[in-house]
Amino acid sequence: MQENNQAPGALAGCKVIDLTRVLGGPYCTQILGDHGADVYKIEPPSGDETRTWGPPFQDGTASYFLGVNRNKYGLSLDLSQPQGQALLKAMLADADVLVENFKPGTLEKWGLGTQSLQQEFPRLIHCRISGFGADGPLGGLPGYDACAQAMCGLMSVNGQADGEATRVGLPVVDMVTGLNAALAILLAVNERHRSGRGQFLDITLFDSAISLLHPHAANYFLGGAVPRRTGNAHPNIAPYESFPTRSGELFLAVGNNRQFELLAGVLGAPDLAADERFRSNADRLKNREALRARLTQLLSGHAAAELAQTLLERGVPAAPVLNVAELIDLPHTRHRGMVLEQGAYRALASPIKLSRTPASLRRLPPAYGQDNDAVFGKLKG
Q1: Domains and CATH numbers, the chain
Q2: Is 202 considered catalytic here?
């Protein structure tokens, strides 16, 4: 990701009105902004609540907000008031995309519902991110990442086999919902080239959480058994879990017999691959505990990082289990350009790499309402 690169991104010329707060929506619109879209983040009078979700803070704004709100203009409007609604409509007149995550029914209450927007702005792509959608048994109810993880089965398969159901240690549902929203917007933009018409995009945390249940849902559909927690171990593959070593933990992701033979060779135990208990993946799954005990013994004299490098070079998927600080300091992290730094601003960069139109850092996360005068002044003038 290039810093202050003035070359137009892939979405240059695309105008996005961003009414979202917290994570799923801002993560979506930051993706669009990183790739050249002009994103106008419009906050309510109370501001995006994540500005206060700290410490740590930088100039009074929490890191949580700073991490997902770069490459956006900072505006503020009270959409419950006629003046705010009029200014929003003035901005929508030449906008390509509207992204919002209000509770279903809120915009309708203000006269800004989907049908009225589509009639007034037929080319507008309106993306709504919500918890459950507007209708159905749970329609209109608020949704939150951790609750979606709990309700949609993610917690049921996450955690130690003999422990409690556990939340994934990051807001994975919010973030994949943001990714789905960005994907939906790009699909709709492409379709508009043919039809000349916008459309309504209905993206929910509920649907996105369910979509993450592979292979557990596939296993249930075919086998009928309710998936259970297996800790770090994979339900379908062995060895596919973390192991202790002399120095740190090592994760092995051995997906086929050839990789298992290579692993046995690197560990100086070719008999391991010849053992009838471990000849095939099905055998290894059946005898998972015996395999784990043997591998733990063989790995006890190795250091995780060094052995992982050796295994990768031999074609065996493996990795040391790193913390966030260790990851940021990893040479390959820097090589891939995954850390952005400009002055006091540090953040994760875009993982989406395009050869001719790369992502760029054009605007730092905005202060609340910092661009009101510049943007609204033109509309009022």
Answers
A1: 2-212+350-380 (3.40.50.10540), 240-324 (3.30.1540.10)
A2: no
